[in-house]
């Protein structure tokens, strides 16, 4: 695989009232494992079910209920780890994180504090062509999700739905390697892309299947480099954790607000208190989450209902062997194999369905650059107009390849091709047949073009004179010829003949 | 005749039922009558006569058809810690007031699948935390043994089970044992109780106290009955991650009484300072009985014995503090009445203050403390390391060729209800001093009645076996039982 | 190590058990009795000893990824002190 070379982006600098400040950001992303059943019970993970219907006695923490682990959830987390080039720990263990909350029926969350399943890995976060940040992953652990408390159905009561309780999550913890709000969003975007490639998380942020906790601190320029040299956190500022964000836009806005809040505090002679905060999108502010602060002693200890999780290297190897081509590899291949720009390769590899579509087109049409151009500009543009995804495209890769083949063989002009695309998009049909039936083929017969040119020259002597004075006016003749031939004349040939006949 | 039926042992009743000399309906009716007459013992706290009669009728049909399992038609009592579908299951706690599980624990399901009859739920210490059955929300269970005006404890936590079996209210009962809760009450009431190897019985559907220590087991009138019950109770359960996927042998068939060539270890560390002479004498007698039966007796050392109880009182409360967090008034059980302006935190605090008794609160808070930030290594992790050492002590003994270990079951005979309540909690904890090591090491242990003290109260001896070797352990216990010839019964005063 | 009244109150709070102020001294006293007893563990040399992970070691059981449970909201809610419209109802939670 060819590595695209890149340089790190410049850290975001915020000018305070007194000095410049830099941001240091670490993320904990909670990704819901794509699985049928929950992590420790046989209840469904399906979204949008009736309240408390995807709940087993285990999920409701009825007395005497015990967890039994869903092996596929472990496989998915291992797959994710491998996709992030991370170390897979053959022995991991589950711990209980104890706290009281109505949507946490057990009174503890089963998680992995001391011995996570996945160790150190990395993610290359693309910012723009040639610019990317390598963000280190500290660990991935597997844990239970909590249920949902609904606070707005009754003035005095909160309502609890346990459908989500016990669904498997992967908590993907990064090192504090992210240096700005845009990078943070790009990190989540890239992570989401990888998870979707791996089919280990659907990445649906709206449904809360991918949520981010963001740790933000600020420091003076130069401090971060000291941290990098020593890995000593004391060079960095005190951080605050903004909990549970499920939109890229909120992530950026929250980080920006939080950094400015901290800078104002520090420049005003105050200090940042390490705490958990919540972002309020309506106000565009973060605020302290007092409820979480009260009981900050989680009393972690190994879950006595479970034994350590031991997995076999052979099993891990099998999963590794089944990994799909991942975004970075695919992008590099698109650049080298098809000669695409990094930008185009990025667009086409954003989603596997796009990449697959593109590759089917190339397979039949042969011309990577032209195919990329048509997929990105025409097809995506058209789909976007109707808010359709590529899976809803009325134009199949074979049809698009047919159009591209017609362009390449000079059978149709680029302009006609766009008309043809629209016909195929709205009416369907084989492009070659349509071109044939509707007489859309380009006229390359120079004799026919010459006749048309002669006729127009003869009919417009005044224009001929003008054009001889000002050769730019030759375009008018080209236009007239195209009009006369119904746009089917090969524009290159028309240009040449017009110039020759006018003696330009 | 009717009053005699509940005195039957399981093996006797089984044989009579199979021969058609007796019906389960008759036997069940006799037990229900005995229970009605034994209110003073406060053993049965939820009676289920209707279920019992239905199950008995079904058992009689099954018996008639032939090939019925051993327990078909046998009336049993079920400790309140077991969740029984549609029947109050409260762990003797106010916090589970009104709770009727929608599910059946694996152990009771297995028993009922084998045709056993449920007479009702049995008293116990709240959440199995106690050694005298004095922490129950139902009030004290009372020992059927009585030598003077005092009412005696049947022990705990399976006090109701012990009292019910000893008083012939049922033919056998389920118990659970986290630090001695089967073996100590068995010893206090002159019956037999075995805690199997950790992982033998499924914990699914049994209200958890300390998950790494809890095991269910039978409480029975003799070793044979314990063997019959145990076989039906244990077995692999895919719903319990700590349940062992091992075949269950026919324990009863292993009771030959032949222990020739077996090596029995006598651990010197169990000779505690201030141990009553009677206990010491009983222990010596047990040693002689096993020797007479052909076993080789060896003095052994289990050097970390002394630290078992302190380790237990870190590990058990720590796990309990987490296991009992689910009792929060949200999904089942008691919820406190709230005052104007009370929020969720007040609901938790009031519900748990009202719902839990003093001992449970104390242990939950101790457990919370030992797990809290800064103390985890000093207490919990250290206790787990000590646990490793305690287990290793036993492994070393077994590796040296010891087949079973003989110890006293309890440091005293049953004491009077209320006598220990004023003492500090630690004095009560000392009741478990001989039994708790077995839970920490995950081993099988059995308590066998072996004699009476000078007041006329029963005393028990404990045998500890190799992991998964309950069959061999039961056989050794059977040999001890035959030599001891303990036949005394409490005289009926209730 | 001695537990003072403040610590006892903090632990009670953490365990979500209301303890009346008047009862705190007694609670602290009981804690001290128990913890004093536990302190014996400090006598043991645990250098190099692994903490026990499982008393009967075996391979962790796994379940297959299939939906085998659920669809019984009525039975999940049947014991609830306060259930409304298919939800468990609790006093308002302020985040």
From TrEMBL, chain A:
Domain Asn/Gln amidotransferase: 356-502
Enzyme class, broadest EC rank: ligase
Key words, A-Z: ATP-binding, Ligase, Nucleotide-binding, Protein biosynthesis, Transferase
Quaternary assembly: Heterotrimer of A, B and C subunits.
Coiled coil: none
SMART domains assigned to the protein according to its UniProt record, in alphabetical order: GatB_Yqey
Transmembrane segments: none
GO molecular function: asparaginyl-tRNA synthase (glutamine-hydrolyzing) activity; ATP binding; glutaminyl-tRNA synthase (glutamine-hydrolyzing) activity; transferase activity
Assigned protein family: Belongs to the GatB/GatE family. GatB subfamily.
Main function: Allows the formation of correctly charged Asn-tRNA(Asn) or Gln-tRNA(Gln) through the transamidation of misacylated Asp-tRNA(Asn) or Glu-tRNA(Gln) in organisms which lack either or both of asparaginyl-tRNA or glutaminyl-tRNA synthetases. The reaction takes place in the presence of glutamine and ATP through an activated phospho-Asp-tRNA(Asn) or phospho-Glu-tRNA(Gln).
EC number: 6.3.5.-
Protein name as catalogued: Aspartyl/glutamyl-tRNA(Asn/Gln) amidotransferase subunit B
Biological process, per Gene Ontology: glutaminyl-tRNAGln biosynthesis via transamidation; translation
InterPro entries from the UniProt entry: Asn/Gln-tRNA_amidoTrfase_suB/E (IPR017959), Asn/Gln-tRNA_Trfase_suB/E_cat (IPR006075), Asn/Gln_amidotransferase (IPR018027), Asn/Gln_tRNA_amidoTrase-B-like (IPR003789), GatB (IPR004413), GatB_C_1 (IPR042114), GatB_Yqey_C_2 (IPR023168), Gln-tRNA_amidoTrfase_suB_CS (IPR017958)
Keyword Protein biosynthesis: yes
Catalytic reaction(s) noted: L-glutamyl-tRNA(Gln) + L-glutamine + ATP + H2O = L-glutaminyl-tRNA(Gln) + L-glutamate + ADP + phosphate + H(+); L-aspartyl-tRNA(Asn) + L-glutamine + ATP + H2O = L-asparaginyl-tRNA(Asn) + L-glutamate + ADP + phosphate + 2 H(+)
UniProtKB/TrEMBL annotation, chain C:
Alphabetized Pfam families for the sequence: GatC
Domain of life, per lineage: Bacteria
One GO BP annotation of this record: translation
Keyword list, A-Z: ATP-binding, Ligase, Nucleotide-binding, Protein biosynthesis, Transferase
EC number: 6.3.5.-
Catalytic activities: L-aspartyl-tRNA(Asn) + L-glutamine + ATP + H2O = L-asparaginyl-tRNA(Asn) + L-glutamate + ADP + phosphate + 2 H(+); L-glutamyl-tRNA(Gln) + L-glutamine + ATP + H2O = L-glutaminyl-tRNA(Gln) + L-glutamate + ADP + phosphate + H(+)
Transmembrane segments: none
A single MF term (Gene Ontology): transferase activity
Keyword Ligase found: yes
Enzyme's top EC category: ligase
Physiological role: Allows the formation of correctly charged Asn-tRNA(Asn) or Gln-tRNA(Gln) through the transamidation of misacylated Asp-tRNA(Asn) or Glu-tRNA(Gln) in organisms which lack either or both of asparaginyl-tRNA or glutaminyl-tRNA synthetases. The reaction takes place in the presence of glutamine and ATP through an activated phospho-Asp-tRNA(Asn) or phospho-Glu-tRNA(Gln).
Family membership: Belongs to the GatC family.
Subunit annotation: Heterotrimer of A, B and C subunits.
Protein name per its UniProtKB record: Aspartyl/glutamyl-tRNA(Asn/Gln) amidotransferase subunit C
């Amino acid at each position: 695989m060819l590595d695209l070379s890149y340089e790190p982006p410049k850290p975001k600098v915020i000018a305070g009232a007194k000095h410049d400040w830099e941001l240091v950001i670490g993320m904990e992303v909670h990704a819901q494992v794509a699985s049928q059943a929950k992590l420790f019970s046989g209840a469904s993970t399906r979204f949008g079910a009736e309240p408390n219907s995807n709940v087993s006695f285990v999920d409701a923490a009825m007395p005497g209920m015990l967890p039994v682990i869903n092996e596929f959830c472990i496989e998915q987390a291992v797959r994710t780890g491998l996709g992030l080039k991370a170390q897979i720990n053959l022995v991991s263990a589950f711990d209980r994180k104890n706290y009281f909350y109505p949507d946490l029926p057990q009174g503890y969350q089963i998680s992995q504090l001391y011995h996570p399943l996945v160790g150190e890995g990395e993610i290359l976060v693309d910012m723009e062509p040639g610019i990317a940040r390598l963000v280190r992953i500290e660990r991935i652990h597997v844990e239970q999700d909590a249920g949902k408390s609904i606070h707005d159905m009754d003035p005095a009561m909160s309502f609890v739905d346990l459908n989500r309780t016990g669904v498997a999550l992967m908590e993907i913890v990064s090192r504090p390697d992210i240096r700005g709000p845009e990078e943070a969003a790009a990190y989540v975007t890239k992570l989401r892309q990888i998870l979707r490639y791996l089919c280990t998380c659907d990445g649906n942020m709206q449904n809360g299947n991918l949520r981010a906790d963001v740790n933000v601190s600020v420091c003076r320029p130069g401090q971060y480099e000291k941290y990098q040299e020593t890995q000593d956190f004391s060079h960095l500022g005190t951080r605050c954790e903004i909990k549970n964000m499920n939109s890229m836009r909120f992530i950026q806005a929250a980080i920006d607000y939080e950094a400015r809040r901290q800078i104002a505090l520090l420049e005003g002679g105050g200090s940042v208190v390490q705490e958990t905060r919540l972002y309020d999108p309506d106000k565009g502010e973060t605020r302290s989450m007092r409820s979480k602060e009260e009981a900050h002693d989680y009393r972690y200890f190994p879950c006595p209902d479970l034994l350590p999780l031991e997995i076999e290297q052979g099993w891990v190897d099998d999963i590794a062997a089944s990994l799909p081509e991942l975004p970075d590899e695919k992008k590099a291949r698109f650049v080298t194999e098809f000669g695409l720009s990094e930008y185009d390769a990025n667009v086409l590899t954003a989603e596997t369905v796009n990449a697959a579509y593109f590759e089917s087109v190339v397979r039949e049409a042969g011309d990577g650059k032209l195919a990329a151009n048509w997929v990105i500009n025409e097809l995506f543009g058209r789909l976007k107009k109707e808010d359709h995804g590529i899976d809803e495209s009325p134009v199949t890769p074979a049809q698009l390849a047919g159009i591209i083949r017609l362009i390449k063989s000079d059978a149709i002009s680029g302009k006609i091709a766009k008309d043809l695309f629209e016909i195929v998009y709205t009416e369907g049909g084989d492009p070659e047949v349509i071109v044939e039936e509707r007489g859309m083929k380009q006229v390359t017969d120079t004799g026919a073009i010459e006749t048309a040119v002669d006729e127009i020259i003869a009919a417009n002597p005044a224009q001929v004179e003008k054009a001889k004075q000002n050769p730019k006016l030759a375009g008018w003749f080209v236009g007239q010829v195209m009009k006369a031939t119904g746009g089917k004349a090969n524009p290159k040939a028309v240009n040449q003949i017009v110039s020759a006949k006018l003696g330009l | 005749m009717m009053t005699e039926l509940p005195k039957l042992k399981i093996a006797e009743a089984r044989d009579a039922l199979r021969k058609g000399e007796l019906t389960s309906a008759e036997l069940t009716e006799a037990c229900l009558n005995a229970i009605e007459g034994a209110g003073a013992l406060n053993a049965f706290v939820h009676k289920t006569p209707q279920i019992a009669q239905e199950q008995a009728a079904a058992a009689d049909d099954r018996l008639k058809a032939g090939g019925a399992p051993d327990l078909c038609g046998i009336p049993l009592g079920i400790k309140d810690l077991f969740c029984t579908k549609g029947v109050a299951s409260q762990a003797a706690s106010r916090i589970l007031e009104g709770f009727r599980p929608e599910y059946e624990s694996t152990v009771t399901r297995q028993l009922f699948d084998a045709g056993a009859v449920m007479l009702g739920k049995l008293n116990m210490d709240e959440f199995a935390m106690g050694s005298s059955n004095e922490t129950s929300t139902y009030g004290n269970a009372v020992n059927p043994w009585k030598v003077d005006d005092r009412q005696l404890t049947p022990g705990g936590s399976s006090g109701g089970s012990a009292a019910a079996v000893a008083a012939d209210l049922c033919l056998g009962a389920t118990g659970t044992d986290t630090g001695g809760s089967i073996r100590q009450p068995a010893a206090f009431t002159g019956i037999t109780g075995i805690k199997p190897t950790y992982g033998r019985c499924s914990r699914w559907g049994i209200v958890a106290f300390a998950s790494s220590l809890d095991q269910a087991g039978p409480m029975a009138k003799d070793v044979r009955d314990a063997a019959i019950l145990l076989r039906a109770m244990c077995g692999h359960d895919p719903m319990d991650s700590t349940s062992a996927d091992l075949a269950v042998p026919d324990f009863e068939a292993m009771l030959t009484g032949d222990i020739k060539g077996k090596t029995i270890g006598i651990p010197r560390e169990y000779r505690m300072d201030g141990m009553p002479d009677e206990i010491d004498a009983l222990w010596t007698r047990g040693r002689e009985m096993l020797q007479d039966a052909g076993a080789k007796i060896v003095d052994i050392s289990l050097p970390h014995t002394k630290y078992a109880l302190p380790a237990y009182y870190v590990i058990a409360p720590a796990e309990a503090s987490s296991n009992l967090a689910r009792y929060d008034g949200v999904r089942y059980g008691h919820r406190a009445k709230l005052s104007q302006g009370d929020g969720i935190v007040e609901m938790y605090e009031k519900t748990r203050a009202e719902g839990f008794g003093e001992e449970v609160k104390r242990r939950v808070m101790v457990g919370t403390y030992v797990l809290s930030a800064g103390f985890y290594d000093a207490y919990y992790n250290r206790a787990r390391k000590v646990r490793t050492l305690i287990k290793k002590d036993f492994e070393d003994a077994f590796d040296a060729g010891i087949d079973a270990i003989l110890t006293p079951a309890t440091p005293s005979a049953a004491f009077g209800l209320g006598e220990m309540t004023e003492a500090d909690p630690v004095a009560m904890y000392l009741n478990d001093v001989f039994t708790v090591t077995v839970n920490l090491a995950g081993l099988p242990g059995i308590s066998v009645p072996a004699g009476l003290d000078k007041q006329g109260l029963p005393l028990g001896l404990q045998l500890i076996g190799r992991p998964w070797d309950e069959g061999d352990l039961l056989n050794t216990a059977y040999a001890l039982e035959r030599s001891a010839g303990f036949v005394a019964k409490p005289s009926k005063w209730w | 190590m001695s537990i003072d009244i403040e610590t006892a109150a903090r632990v009670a709070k953490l365990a979500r058990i209301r303890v009346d102020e008047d009862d705190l001294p007694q609670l602290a006293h009981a804690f001290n009795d128990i913890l004093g007893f536990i302190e014996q563990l400090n006598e043991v040399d645990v250098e190099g000893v692994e903490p026990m992970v499982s008393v009967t070691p075996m391979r962790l059981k796994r379940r297959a990824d299939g939906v085998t449970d659920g669809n019984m909201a009525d039975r999940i809610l049947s014991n609830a002190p306060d259930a409304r419209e298919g939800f468990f109802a609790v006093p308002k939670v302020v985040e």
